Amino acid sequence: MQFSAYPRNIRDILSLPRQHIIPRYQREYSWEKDEQVSEFWEDLLKQINFNATPITVKDYFIGSLVLIGDDSKDTTFYVIDGQQRITTITILLSVLCEIGKELHQQTNIDEYKVFSNVCYTFIEGTNNETLSKFFKLDNETPKPFFQKKILYINKDTEINPDTIEEKKLNEAY
User: Fold this and answer.
1) What does the H/E/C string look like for the chain?
2) Cβ-contact 106, 40 below 8 angstroms
3) pLDDT per position as a tens digit, 13-27
4) Is this model's pTM higher than 0.90 or not?
5) CB contact burial 142-172 (16+ within 10 A = b; e otherwise)
């Protein structure tokens, strides 16, 4: 078995037409809103200089992401380590999509709609060969809650969390 390491940023990982699957055997999403999610958010905010014009952002190391797959040919990768972080980042992107949509509805300023759409390109991808849509992060355990409540561009507001994992995902969102 051959192992390779590649330096990538989140934009690189989520902008490619690749699916990242969190297999059932991985532990459930366990980050607490008032602990790990809040700390992650605060760390991200510290990297942004809001006083600069334009706003600048420092590099931030979120940790390693361990994937199974061949970087040169595969479009499906299995997340072995880093699922809490990549899930939380996907939740953040989904929230940003919603904020952009709401701001566009309130102000009719097209830049908010563009912002929302750009954020969504990191959540949903298109297979280049079949043109079929797929979510770039597929968590096999909390289906269909994760997809309907967090990933879809048009959220299912009627679905409620049942499991502890779904409740943690919902709280993080």
Assistant:
1) CCCCCCCCCHHHHHHCCCEEEECCCCCCCCCCHHHHHHHHHHHHHHCEECCCCCCEECCCCCCCCEEECCCCCCCEEEEEECHHHHHHHHHHHHHHHHHHHHHHHHHCCHHHHHHHHHHHCCCEEECCCCCCEEECEEECCCCCHHHHHHHCCCCCCCCCCCCHHHHHHHHHC
2) no
3) 898 889 999 998 889
4) yes
5) beebbbebbbbeebeeeeebeeebbbbbbeb
**Of 17, 22, 14, nearest to 134 (Cα)?**
17
Q: What is the rounded CA–CA span in Å between residue 73 and residue 8?
A: 17
Lowest mean pLDDT of 16-20, 100-104, 108-112, name the range: 16-20
